[in-house]
Design a protein that fits this description.
single chain, Lipopolysaccharide biosynthesis protein-like protein, 4-stranded antiparallel sheet, RgpF, 14 helices, plasmid, alpha/beta
């Protein structure tokens, strides 16, 4: 089996971080790689991955990962390369890993023999399932089709990141379904929403080879606690250098965030007084604050936020080096 990976990279400091170098080095074992940046990397940075890539495309385009996927795919197509490959991998640097042997994961994906398969599949959004876009494995019977080619050509800059998710992440999944292609995730949702963010421990216990950066990198509505994080580190540290995670986080994470890293409350709890009249639920909002939400007649909603400092357990951590002590 011959595989071609288009790897999308971005870094706010125009750096190819060591965790990315490791990912690309491991990816090279199972695939040829075209690396596409959405920033302006220096020649010295690009030298870190030169030996592992058959081609590098460098420069800010502001179309996010799908814009990088487009550029890598078009380069391969215009240079008559796609016909030489059985599978196309679309992947990016939004996660740490691979935490486990990537070849074993790919072999399992091959066994499914589906047209479009991702490392994970999520719950129904907009009335259909979708496959996550940070590692997509596509059969040549799909990536050589006109509908796929047209989808890639139509990718353009969007002003709102949600438009990117709707048009391209959800859109690619819907496109495949509309063309009678069954979607498959090697790791399925199990009735949970967005498991890579909201239940990473359970996934990693199943052998999931990636940890999403955002779980630790910044505040998102993730139910992270110290016990879960400890167990994640204990599982992966025999196969993955934890320093790659620590060094990256120490460079990019908001230092004030480290102080309030672990949530104090359960992430979501709902109480019905009467389903059609009144409900009360608590949750972590997208801003990271814990809030109580009152809903009246499924129409009027009132939310009250707790301050950040009251929403999280306060720690005395000054950096992420504490992960090395686990």
């Amino acid at each position: 089996m011959k595989r071609l990976a288009v790897f999308a990279g971005y870094d706010k400091d125009n750096i190819i971080d060591d965790y990315v170098v490791y990912y690309i080095k491991e990816l090279k074992k199972i695939s040829d790689i075209i690396y596409v940046s959405d920033c302006n990397m220096s020649d010295n940075e690009l030298k870190k991955i030169n030996d592992y890539c058959i081609h590098i495309i460098n420069g800010r385009h502001e179309e996010y990962d799908f814009g990088s996927y487009k550029r890598g795919y078009l380069y391969a197509k215009e240079n008559n390369m796609l016909q030489n490959y059985d599978y196309l991998i679309l992947c990016n640097d939004s996660c740490y890993g691979p935490l486990f042997d990537l070849e074993n994961i790919i072999n399992k994906m091959n066994d499914y023999n589906f047209g479009g398969i991702s490392i994970s599949k999520d719950l129904k959004i907009a009335n259909h399932n979708y496959i996550t876009s940070f590692f997509i494995y596509i059969n040549k019977n799909i990536f050589n089709k006109d509908f796929f080619n047209n989808f890639i050509y139509d990718i353009k800059k969007e002003e709102d990141k949600m438009d990117i998710i709707k048009k391209y992440e959800f859109g690619l999944s819907k496109l495949m379904l509309d063309n009678n292609i069954e979607l498959k995730g090697l790791f399925n949702d199990n009735g949970e929403f967005n498991r890579p963010y909201f239940n990473p421990l359970a996934l990693i216990e199943e052998g999931y080879p990636f940890l999403k950066k955002h779980v630790l990198e910044k505040k998102v509505t993730v139910p992270l606690n110290i016990d879960e994080l400890t167990n994640i580190i204990k599982i992966i540290k025999n196969n993955y250098d934890i320093k790659l995670i620590v060094n990256h986080l120490n460079r990019v994470a908001d230092k004030e965030q480290i102080k309030y890293l672990f949530q104090k409350y359960k992430p979501y709890k709902k109480t019905f007084i009467h389903e059609k009249i009144f409900s009360l639920f608590t949750r972590y909002s997208p801003s990271g604050k814990y809030q109580t939400v009152y809903n009246f007649f499924n129409f009027l909603t009132i939310s009250i936020d707790k301050p950040i400092k009251d929403s999280y357990i306060e720690t005395d951590y000054k950096d992420f080096n504490f992960l090395l002590e686990i």
